[in-house]
Amino acid sequence: MALVPALPTSKYVDVAGTYQLVSVAEKSLPAPTGKDDGCLVSVAAAKLTLTTDRKWTLEQTERRECGKSSRDELKRDHGTYQVSGDNVTFLDDDGERNTGGTADADIDIDELDQGTLTGTTLTVRLEEGQSLVFKR
């Protein structure tokens, strides 16, 4: 009897869940993301939710500090995602990957591109190349 080699199987990784942002471009929160009209803009907090039906929602608290005053604003973005092993590809609502960002100094944390889940840590590369680290 001839032995048939086993076909490689791709491992299934359950990525669904809620992840809290812990760092932006290797800086812990609140992390500066740019300047706007002379104000310092930073991410004070963010939560990424991946659902079992392959949808994602990012809720972030953006802080604007202008001189001695500051203001927090809640922002929300969403889309869909695909999974291959422990890799996650984030797509906009139109099903396309984020492209066409401007190569400036600002960090747009809602421009999710590719992610990798290792244990409870989800590391996501943004469309412009910076990284975000989330913990489940």
Description:
It is a single chain. The protein has 136 residues and is mainly β. The chain has a single domain (17-135), classed as Lipocalin. It is built from no helices and ten strands. An eight-stranded antiparallel barrel has the order 1-4-5-6-7-8-9-10. A hairpin with a 4-residue loop joins strand 4 (39-50) and strand 5. The protein is elongated. The model has no long low-confidence stretch (mean pLDDT 89).
SSE arrangement, N to C: EEEEEEEEEE
**Radius of gyration over C-alpha positions, nearest whole angstrom:** 18 Å
N-C termini distance: 48 Å
Sheet-strand content, in percent, reads over 45%
Secondary-structure-based class equals mainly beta
